[in-house]
Amino acid sequence: MATIAIELGKVSSKNTREVYLLVRQGKSRRRVKTGVKLAESEYSKETGRIKSPAKARIVEKLRNEFEDNLEAVEQASVNAETTDGDFITSQIIKKQEVKTLDFFTFTEEWLTRSTIKSAKNYRCMLNTLEAFNGRRSLLFQDINVRFLKDFEVYLKDRPRAKSMYIGLIRHLFREAMIEYNTDDETVIKTDPFQRYKAPRQVMKKGVRALSLEDFMKVVNYKPEGAGRKLLAHDCFILSFCLMGMNSVDLYNVKKLEHGIMKYNRTKTKDRRSDEAYIEVRVHPFIKSLMAKWKGTGGYVFKFHDRFKHPEDFNRSLNVGLKAIGDDLHMPGLQFYQARHTFATLSRNMMKFSKSDVDEALNHVGSYDIADVYITKDFSIINENNYKLIDRVFDLEPTPMDVKAKAVPRKHEAKEETAETKGKTTKSKKK
Fold this sequence. Notes:
The chain is mainly alpha-helical and 430 residues long. Helices cover 50% and strands 10% of the residues.
C-alpha cells in the first residue's frame, strides 16, 4: 500500500526549508510541493516537526487529502492489473493536482505546448480574467455557472471580448477535461458549459462596409510622400481587389504563378481540413500596384523589408487609414473595411450568391457536405471578382487573361482623348 509522509527540503539561500509530501509505493518515490516554506524558527532541526500551528494545519490537510485518494487509486491499479509503483504514485498525485489545479497555470503550460496561432488572444484573456478575479490564480473547481455569468456582466461593454474570452475559457476547460479525465475515472466531474451558453457576438451587419461613393473617395485620395498614408491607401485597394485579402496574408504570401496568387488563409488554416487554401487571379487593374510593392526573398510583397512582424504591418495600415479617414471626414476608417466592402458590393451591387461571396472570402460555407462531392474550382469566384472590379472602377469587361490590360470604358477614353487634344492644340498655338 502506498504511504504519504512529510519531508523537509534542503535549506535555501534565504535560510528557509520547503515542505514536501513524499508519496511512496514499492520502490517508487515522488515528492510533491506543498507550497509551504518554513523559517528556521518554524521547525525542529532534531525531529523535523513543524512548530508553526498554521503551517502544520495546511500540510496535514494536504496529506489527508492525498490519503483520501489512496483507496480509489489502488482500486484503479487493480482494474488496470498493475502494481507498478510509478503508476500508483503518479495517479495519486494526479488526483490531488486536479483539486488544486490552477486555470492560469494550466493555460500557461498549455500555451507552451500548443502551436495555436492565436496565443496572443489567450494571454489577453488571462490578463482580463486576472483583473476581474482580483488575482492571477483560479481553481478549475471555482469556474461554475455563477462565475461565468459574473464575468459576462463584467465584459458587458466589450461585446467582442465577451464572446471571444468566454469561448477561450470553454476551450481550455475542455482541454483540461481531456487531459485529466480517463475512461476509468472522471476527475473533473462538472462541465459548467453544459448549462451555461457562451454569448455570441451580435454583428451589426454591413456597418463596417463603405458605400461605393465612400470607397471611391478613398481610392481617389492622393497621399503625399511615401509614408503610412501611401502604404495604407495602396494596401486598401490591393485587399479589395484580391477578394478582401487580410493584412497578415498580404504580408506572408509567397506564391504568385502565372498571374495567380496562391495561399492559405493564416487565420483559419490550422482549423480547416482544406487548410483554407485559395487561388486569386490578379486583375490587370492592380498590376502597377503589384509592381510597386514587389517583394524580395521569395515574398510577393516587400512588406517584410519594412516590418518585422505582421502585427506591426497591420497597425501601420490602420494608423495610415485613420489619417486618411480624418482627411476625408470618414472617422475610424480601418483596413478591414476593404474586406467588408468587397463582400457587401459583391452581394448587394453585383447580386452574387452568398455562397460565392463566402467562398471568395475563404469562409467555410453552409454547403460543406456538397463540398465533399464538388471538385474545387476557383474560376467562378475569380470571374465574379473581375466583374466586380470592372464595375467599381468603370472598366471595359476584362477577360481572365494574364496578358490582358484594364481598359477604361469608351466614353472615358473619348473624354480623355478630347482633353489631350485640347491641351495639344493650346500648346501649338503658344
